[in-house]
Amino acid sequence: MHDALPQERYTPLAVLVHWAVAVLVFFQLGLGWYMEGLPEGPDRSADFALHKSIGLTVFTLAALRLVWRATHPPPPFPASIPRWQNVLARGNHTLLYVLMFLQPVSGYLSSSFSGYTTGFFGFPLPHWGWKEPFLNELFSDIHEASAITLAVLVGVHVLAAVAHAVRPGDHLFRRMLPRSLVQ
Question: What's the pTM?
């Protein structure tokens, strides 16, 4: 099995951040779904605190990835990839980034208007709101709707990645794998 040419690969930092964000987003979606039915209490508070901290971590990693991408353009799509797939992939990636920012911002704002504080792994963060049920509900609804949208887009992304991984002669998937897995 031949490795993709170096210019066809993402940089090691881009690969690391991609997979870190992927793991954290999957965890967040599962934790968020789990937390929906939890009764008030210390367990729920601990889960919410963890969810907030990981959400802010995803926000930070997505910002780092965008800065890195601005200074290190991604490898071009191979000529063998049909244009419509290229367009859909770029659109999906753009929406994934938008949602990786919208999710933590809407969650942070919801929390700010809930009367609860937000921390980052135990360190308190500025509280930008006041107890306002309408705004809390508005940002909570945005957070939930964008979580569903994010889950759908992640599903599309994963299905496309699997399709490229199993298609004979298609090396597109391999360029986002750590080098140690494709040698």
Answer: 0.91
